[in-house]
Amino acid sequence: MNRKFVMLAATLVAAIGVALPSFAQDDYTAPLTELANGKLREIAQNPALISAIVAQNQQTAGYDAAKIDELDKQWRAEVDAADKPLINATLANEASQFLAKAQADSAGLFTEIFATDAVGLNVAQSSVTSDYWQGDEDKFTKSFGAGAAGVFLGEVEQDESTQTFQSQVSITITDPASGQPIGSITAGVDLSKL
């Protein structure tokens, strides 16, 4: 089906306030899967990103649910605070700078990119996320949880602030040396740029 027709139909459907039709969602499955297994996997193998994830996994492997919740609450509080030590430390790392450049170089295709460790805590991101722990969300559980080749395509949704249709694409990040899953990466994708 013609993607321009799908975008027009989706815009009309969104304007009258009903769910996006399944044919529109299905129209993006192939190009989003190709993006996941191509460009996103390429980004996921960046040495700075791999190193940051491996280092954080060594630190967070022993974290219990209470510690993860504490960090997530701290992050959420920092989002609207003047003082942002956890957020600033994450955004300042080399891996986050790499993801910010990858997003900038995508000519608007990627609206955000963030990577997690093996427990679902953010390691790097191109911009501030609303929460620090992704471990309870499909984008993590259905990519990292599916093993080394895990791919998860999120729902097609309209971003109210930009009036664009987007989907999140998530994959498992593996250690190039061992092939073992070490984390996940998620990219917001502007569907009009596919």
- Spans of 5+ residues with little confidence (pLDDT < 50)? none
What is the percentage of strand-forming residues?
Answer: 15-25%
Gross morphology is globular
**Number of domain modules:** 1
User: Treating each run of at least 4 consecutive H or I residues as one helix, how many helices?
Assistant: 8
Briefly note the CATH topology name: Beta-Lactamase
Mean pLDDT: 89
- From the coordinates shown, what is the CATH architecture? 2-Layer Sandwich
The first-level CATH class is given as Alpha Beta
Task: Give the beta-strand count.
Answer: 6
CATH homologous superfamily grouping: PAS domain
Order of helices and strands: HHHHHHHEEHEEEE
Helix content: 40-55%
Largest sheet: 6 strands, antiparallel
Structural class: alpha+beta
Radius of gyration, taken over Cα atoms and rounded to an integer in Å: 17 Å
Distance between the termini: 14 Å
